[in-house]
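Can anyone check this?
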Amino acid sequence: MLENEIKKTLAADEIKLPEIVKLLLDLKMEFNLNETNTDDILRTLRLDNDQAVKERDYLYKRLIEYTNKCNNCMLCTLETHTQKVPGEGALNSPLVLIGEGPGFDEDKEGRPFVGKAGKLLTTILDKLNVSREKVYITNVIKCRPPQNRTPLQKEIKACSHILELELSIIKPKVIIALGAVPFNYFKPGSSIMKERGQWINVRDYWIMPTFHPAYILRQGGKALTQVKWLVWSDFNKALEKAKELCPEYNYADP
């Protein structure tokens, strides 16, 4: 029961509720839910009705608030950062796409994957008959690093509480790790070049590592054609697995 989880937490030396428990407790009170444990409350979010839509909208607004409050590392104080970039999409999606971090366009608009790489990602999803709005798209870190450099390990660690909160709410079946940073987040010390396209199962997530769309855009000639087909294959495998594990979910716009 949710109340028992709270009591167990309060019995610890440090009296601090996990953010997911606080959010779900607030959700329970906001909508006067009868469910008494976290799994049952999260299950209501996946229903296909107006009430579930309102609950997801409420939680998404709270996620944005939570993200915007974060000042755990120095990235949010640098000139290259103008605003945080929360994830976006469906909080009931069985499929989550995770990139590295926001770039110039993402920082400017406050949305993930809206630059050239983002447009390519949208094209891939469109060809799969998947609406961006019906999956969840986010990044490991939510602030743009200087010159779009690779996030430092200490920055990833400082920002991880936001990604973990997103995943705790969504509980996806399948994750597409777009590039080395999200892949190494789940499997430290791994190589995207060697292990791309190979399933890993971590923390009950089926994770498909593939190349970041920005990597595709840096290719040319035969390499471009080859990389496009590899990524296309990876996306197809990920979508097929997500549909197998959650066959009732509709990825296309109604």
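Reply from J.R.: I decoded it. The longest strand covers residues 205-210.
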